[in-house]
């Protein structure tokens, strides 16, 4: 996993964190009341799986550092969105019992209990496991106490020249009210005393986020890489910031704020302007978590609690250093031997030119056959990106229509659309402004695109446009032909290197017609109709999934071949889960491959003994969504953008496309076979809701890594083996 990508698009968490409280589901009373697992605790269990990789000594050391940082980043977002949303609903009286019937205040307490345990375990993993291993590898994260006099002299010079000018201490007294503490900022609380009057004062110092979190120490000729946390360095130079005063106490603290917000689109004339106002307000959301170092004195803590309006439940005492998300900086150290072996994505065989030295022609390749792509094992740059770049410069292309949910800051995708518009092609971009934590970037893209002459639409009122679609209309021999891409992941070249996703390229006329109708609905006024090869939310996706689950249920009851295999990031929707339970009761074998949240309780006698749930967390972020139904021998297999959550089925534009090519269906079946195999390392969900890691045989031998298996399989393909 690439740290930079997670800083740009912290997708390990974000995909699962949007508001998903509302549900129209009504329990019919035919199934046991305790059949669901709590979604919030399930998400925390997912982040625990990330932490377990950081604790695993068989994972390359700097990758363990990366997983520690990802865990911290994930938990920050969980508090900013999920915990914040729950608190907001409690305060406004809108909160309802959770999906397992827990009262809101009890749910908040359960989250807090588990989060306290996980944060303590996270800190211990760094202190007791990863830091000693870094020391052995010659990478030292020092404290001030570890430095000798020569080190301190050299660091004094660094402080005076590069750090001191940036610092801004703020006094707190009747003339200086308690300062605003920005969300996720690292701060020092400082208590000083006037030597003559004996009067004590309080000050706050923000650790500058514009400076490196870990300051590299000068070479001491031992060949070691040595760093000191910025806050530790600063706290040992406080006398220079408060000359003439006695520094009595100093402690680290960090505040997490509510960064959730809502926009009433029905009452908003200009969505961009309204969103920009809300983004400014986000900075000033109420505090929901206070992290402090475990040595903080009670007097300082009382002051912070009082001024911030924090409850005791929301205080997290941890050993220094706080904010281990800063470890992304350490991960970036160039030590290839301490990271996963570099993998270079291959170009899909189906996209290779017929002759070795010939120029690739994506249109010709798609015209020959439907192409199923598997990123990051197969290159995004030489497939989807190449498709859009060729589209921009092809004189025969008349129109391009595309959805954009998240993309990179210097996006070649956006550049291709701009180039196409400037070349006189008709270009439509459906930009989702409300992609969480990417709102500002998306506003910037939208304005760039509009300036270039692209028709920019912000989707449908009340719905997020989450589908991943591109449609190209090309003139060939006096006729118009459609070239389509439907994916499971965002049009983001950076995250495509670390997110596992599927993409489908086709010149199938029916898919093209379906997408044409869908884009017309997204950009204009049109009444949604049924599609031939697509399942589209919110009108038809839920119905389509339920229909196929019921078909499998009936097939099992009739003694016909049945089976359901689903791969998603999260599964929470009660109606879908209940349908799966009833299918299991009828004897349908069900495999669920779930990365994150899972509210299904598998293995319960009489209810779900035919359901298996597996989770894989590893080098790449599992992100694709796949839905397979045996269909009595006529399999229905879909890929697309939707998870099984209320928001995906009811409040988003999502698209699944049916695969029909036998070789592609076989590829999907093979993928599930390996993922669900007892020979593959994974986490198994127990009836109790506990995830048990199974990564070794009884003899202690490591089980195979799914992502390594796929990597070898795809890298080893020869031209003759094109699917």
Characterise this structure.
The chain has 723 residues and is α/β, with parallel strands linked by helices. Among the domains are: 133 residues, Polyphosphate kinase N-terminal domain (Methane Monooxygenase Hydroxylase, Chain G, domain 1, Up-down Bundle); 184 residues, Endonuclease, Chain A (2-Layer Sandwich); 187 residues, Endonuclease Chain A (Endonuclease, Chain A). It contains 21 helices and 27 strands. The strands form 4 sheets. Strands 14, 18, 19, 20, 21, 23, 24, 25, 26 and 27 form a 10-stranded mixed β-sheet that branches. Strands 10, 11, 12, 13, 15, 16, 17 and 22 form an 8-stranded mixed β-sheet that branches. It has a 6-stranded mixed β-sheet with strand order 2-4-3-7-8-9, with helices on both faces. A hairpin with a 5-residue loop joins β26 and β27. α4 packs antiparallel against α5. The longest helix has 33 residues.
Largest sheet: 10 strands, mixed
Low-confidence stretches: 1-13, 261-272
CATH topology of the domain at 535-721: Endonuclease, Chain A
Global outline: globular
Q: Could you say which structural class the secondary elements and strand pairing correspond to?
A: alpha/beta
Distance between the termini: 28 Å
- The CATH architecture category of the domain at 535-721 equals 2-Layer Sandwich
Strand proportion: 15-25%
Compute the number of helices: 21
Helix content: 25-40%
Rg to the nearest angstrom? 27 Å
Question: Which homologous superfamily in CATH is the superfamily of the domain at 535-721?
Answer: Endonuclease Chain A
Mean pLDDT: 88
Q: How many individual β-strands?
A: 27
What is the CATH class name of the domain at 535-721?
Alpha Beta
């Amino acid at each position: 996993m690439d740290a930079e990508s997670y800083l740009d698009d912290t997708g390990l968490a974000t995909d699962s964190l949007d508001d998903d409280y509302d549900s129209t589901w009504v329990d019919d009373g035919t199934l046991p009341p305790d059949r669901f697992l709590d979604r919030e605790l399930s998400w925390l269990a997912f982040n625990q799986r990330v932490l377990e990789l950081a604790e695993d000594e068989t994972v390359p050391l700097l990758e363990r550092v990366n997983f520690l940082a990802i865990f911290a980043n994930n938990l920050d977002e969980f508090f900013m969105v999920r915990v914040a949303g729950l608190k907001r609903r409690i305060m406004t009286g809108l909160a309802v019992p959770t999906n397992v019937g827990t009262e809101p205040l009890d749910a908040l307490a359960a989250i807090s209990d588990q989060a306290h345990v996980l944060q303590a375990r996270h800190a211990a993993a760094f202190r007791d496991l990863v830091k000693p291993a870094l020391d052995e590898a010659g990478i030292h994260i020092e404290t001030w106490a570890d430095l000798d006099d020569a080190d301190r002299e050299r660091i004094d010079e660094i402080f005076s020249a590069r750090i001191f000018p940036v610092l801004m201490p703020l006094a707190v007294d009747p003339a200086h009210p308690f300062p605003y503490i920005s969300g996720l900022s690292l701060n020092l609380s400082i208590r000083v005393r006037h030597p003559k009057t004996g009067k004590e004062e309080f000050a706050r110092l923000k650790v500058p986020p514009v400076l490196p979190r870990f300051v590299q120490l000068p070479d001491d000729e031992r060949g070691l890489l040595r760093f000191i946390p910025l806050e530790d360095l600063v706290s040992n130079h406080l006398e220079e910031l408060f000359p003439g005063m006695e520094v009595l106490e100093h402690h680290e603290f960090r505040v997490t704020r509510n960064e959730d917000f809502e926009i009433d689109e029905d009452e908003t004339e200009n969505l961009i302007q309204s969103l920009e106002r809300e983004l400014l307000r986000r900075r000033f959301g109420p505090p929901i978590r206070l992290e402090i170092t475990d040595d903080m004195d009670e007097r300082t803590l009382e002051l912070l609690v009082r001024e911030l309006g924090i409850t005791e439940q929301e205080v997290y005492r941890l050993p220094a250093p706080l904010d281990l998300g800063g470890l992304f900086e350490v991960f970036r150290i160039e030590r290839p031997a301490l990271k996963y072996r570099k993998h270079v994505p291959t170009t899909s065989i189906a996209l290779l030119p017929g002759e070795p030295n010939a120029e690739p022609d994506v249109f010709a390749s798609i015209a020959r056959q439907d192409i199923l792509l598997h990123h990051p094992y197969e290159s995004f740059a030489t497939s989807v990106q190449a498709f859009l770049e060729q589209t921009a410069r092809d004189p025969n292309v008349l129109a391009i229509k595309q959805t954009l949910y998240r993309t990179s800051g210097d996006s070649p995708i956006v550049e291709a659309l701009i180039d196409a518009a400037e070349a006189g092609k008709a270009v439509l971009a459906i930009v989702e402004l409300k992609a969480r934590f990417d709102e500002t970037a998306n506003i910037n893209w939208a304005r760039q695109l509009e300036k270039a002459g692209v028709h920019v639409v912000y989707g449908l009122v009340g719905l997020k446009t989450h589908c991943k679609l591109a449609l190209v209309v090309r003139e060939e021999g006096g006729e118009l032909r459609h070239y389509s891409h439907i994916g499971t992941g965002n049009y983001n070249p950076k995250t495509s290197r670390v997110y596992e996703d599927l993409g489908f390229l086709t010149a199938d006329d029916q898919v093209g017609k379906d997408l044409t109708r869908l884009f017309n609905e997204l950009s204009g006024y049109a009444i949604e109709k049924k599609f031939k090869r697509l399942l589209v939310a919110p009108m038809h996706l839920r119905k389509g999934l339920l229909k196929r689950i019921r078909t499998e249920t009936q097939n099992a009851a009739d003694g016909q071949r049945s089976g359901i295999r689903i791969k998603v990031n999260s599964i929470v929707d009660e109606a879908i889960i209940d349908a799966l339970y009833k299918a299991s009761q009828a004897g349908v074998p069900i495999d669920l491959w779930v990365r994150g949240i899972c509210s299904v309780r598998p293995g319960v006698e009489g209810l779900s003994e035919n359901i298996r749930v597996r989770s894989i967390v590893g080098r790449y972020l599992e992100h694709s969504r796949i839905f397979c139904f045996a269909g009595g021998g006529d399999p229905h297999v879909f890929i697309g953008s939707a998870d099984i959550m209320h928001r995906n089925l009811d409040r988003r534009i999502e698209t699944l496309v049916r695969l029909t090519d036998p070789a592609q269906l076989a590829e999907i079946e093979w993928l599930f076979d390996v993922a669900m195999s007892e020979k593959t390392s994974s986490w198994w969900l127990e009836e109790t809701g506990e995830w048990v890691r199974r990564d070794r045989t009884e003899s202690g031998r490591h089980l195979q890594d799914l992502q390594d298996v796929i990597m070898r399989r795809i890298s080893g393909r020869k031209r003759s083996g094109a699917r």
